[in-house]
Amino acid sequence: MKLWIIGKRGLLASAMRRKCLEKGIDHVATTRKEVDVEDEKSVRAQFETMHFTHVINCSGYTAVDQAEEEEARAFALNRDAVALLAKLAQEHGKKLIHFSTDYVFDGEKEGYQTGDPTAPLSIYGKSKEAGEKELHPEACLIRTSWLFGQEGSHFVKTMIRLMEQQETLSVVNDQKGRPTYADDLAEAALSLLDASGTFHFANEGETTWHGFAETIKRKLEEKNHPLRCHTIEPVTSEKFGKAKRPASSILLTENLQPPHWEKGLEEVLAHAFES
């Protein structure tokens, strides 16, 4: 077994690589410069010259608000590149593991199972839904939500920076979901290497973005980390962002048993301040 991990510098790919190293799983990871997933010649050359058994697609367009103005770009990465990978994986007999998002749902339900119909509200969500439809039945699709981790840009790092700089923050309080620690998602993905179909993975525990921020602040205060922030004001989604987001995007994990997201948050903070 050998994995090809796409999106080498990204948050999830970094976690995947770390877990592969821990478990002694043979793998290769590539950046966009090394293999451009939008270029069929580049991707085909990888399939024809590199010996691997699984394709782990951690790449994609993730700028939710920016996608409202860059629809073609979002669909190029989230639909067309996925279609190319799916086609070549099928041609060459490779297993494809692809990641999607809670934003494929409209937020009208309290929680979502894998078989629930999709109805995205944003261009980003629509582009991810379109990518899902390009997958073949033998592929493994893993939807996740509110991803954070040791590397990359994400909500936890943004909150830490703002709490160090500002006395008062405003954070959305009318969106509910389940934060997901990238290392836990990577662990789950490695357990599904031989699986086909759709899976949901998000850490245990429901919260709002405001609740998430309050927990980050509390954890930092427990570590005596110097903060300027003393107040986090709850605000509505209308105050932030161009893209419409689901009010409730709680992914029900069914057969998977993830740990609580606060455990992952502790690991991220330990890595950030104690390493």
Set down the secondary structure blueprint.
Elements: E1 3-6, H1 11-23, E2 27-30, H2 40-49, E3 54-57, H3 71-92, E4 95-101, E5 111-112, H4 123-133, E6 140-144, E7 147-148, H5 155-165, E8 168-172, E9 176-177, E10 180-181, H6 182-191, E11 197-200, E12 207-208, H7 209-222, E13 231-235, E14 250-251, H8 261-274
Parallel strand pairs: 1-2, 1-3, 3-4, 4-6, 5-14, 6-11, 7-10, 8-13
Antiparallel strand pairs: 9-12
Largest sheet: 6 strands, parallel
| Named CATH architecture | 3-Layer(aba) Sandwich
Helical content stands at 25-40%
Number of domains in the coordinates?
A: 1
> Which sequence of SSEs, written as H and E, runs from N to C?
EHEHEHEEHEEHEEEHEEHEEH
Briefly note the structural class of the backbone: alpha/beta
Strand content: 15-25%
Name the shape in a single word: globular
Number of helices: 8
Radius of gyration: 19 Å
Distance between the termini: 32 Å
| Low-pLDDT runs | none
CATH topology: Rossmann fold
What is the H level of CATH, i.e. the homologous superfamily?
NAD(P)-binding Rossmann-like Domain
GO molecular function: dTDP-4-dehydrorhamnose reductase activity
EC number: 1.1.1.133
Keywords: NADP, Oxidoreductase
Function: Catalyzes the reduction of dTDP-6-deoxy-L-lyxo-4-hexulose to yield dTDP-L-rhamnose.
Main features:
about 280 residues; alpha/beta; Rossmann fold; about 40% helix; RmlD-like-bd; dTDP-4-dehydrorhamnose reductase; EC 1.1.1.133; dTDP_dehydrorham_reduct; NAD(P)-bd_dom_sf
